[in-house]
Amino acid sequence: MSQTDLSRFRRRCGQFRWLAVFMVVTVGAVVALSHFIAPVLLALRETPVPGRSLATALLTGGPPVCYLFGVWSIGRAMGQLSNGRLFQPTVADALRRVGLALGVGGVFSVFIVTNLLRVIGETRGGYLHFDIPGMTLGMIGGALFLLGGIVDQAGRVQAELDEII
Question: Is the dihedral of CA 23, 24, 30, 31 positive or negative?
Fold first, then answer.
């Protein structure tokens, strides 16, 4: 990779980092308003809103927070790459963090939210929410987490081989 290609790559990583920050801030503000701030204000009102309790809002706000943490982790990794951090450890760490965020968000969306809403009496129905995007994100998250471990192991093996040679 030539010096100009490396400079271009780092500049693009920096730009992507700011895009991720913008997304986390704007979408995070909407999630905070709709899942945390508005329900608290509505709970303080004299007349409650049917079907939208504070507990429901807080529970359904869990998966978006996990997904936003995944986006933040990607932005963090891009920022580190733009500052010149080594590629392999940065990518391995980012894969594990993003994988964990997507996996937890997906599992929370499919299994935890539905069953906790049933326990507190907010909804009726099955034990599993057939949420295809949540299931997909959970599976992708698990795969990314595993790939992060493989990339990390490959870095350790490469370092060991470099010591031998």
Answer: positive
H or E, element range at 104: helix 87-107
- What is the C-alpha separation between 94 and 131, in angstroms, rounded? 25
Please tell me the distance from the alpha carbon of residue 165 to that of residue 161, in angstroms, as a whole number: 6
Q: What are phi and psi of 127, to 5 degrees?
A: -90, -5
Per-residue pLDDT of the chain (165 residues; tens, 9 = 90+): 788 999 999 999 999 999 999 999 999 999 988 887 877 777 777 666 655 677 788 888 899 999 999 999 999 999 999 999 999 999 999 999 999 999 999 999 888 888 888 888 777 777 667 788 889 999 999 999 999 999 999 989 988 888 887
**Residue where the block lists tokens 């509505």:** 42
Q: And the tokens for 27?
A: 């979408």
- pTM score, whole prediction: 0.86
Question: Three-state SS across 18-39?
Answer: HHHHHHHHHHHHHHHHHHHHHH
Helix 87-107 and helix 132-164, axial crossing angle in degrees, nearest 10:
160
Structure tokens at 124: 């009726």
| Cβ contacts of 23-27, under 8 Å, gap ≥ 24 | 23/71, 24/68, 24/71, 24/72, 24/75, 27/64, 27/68, 27/71
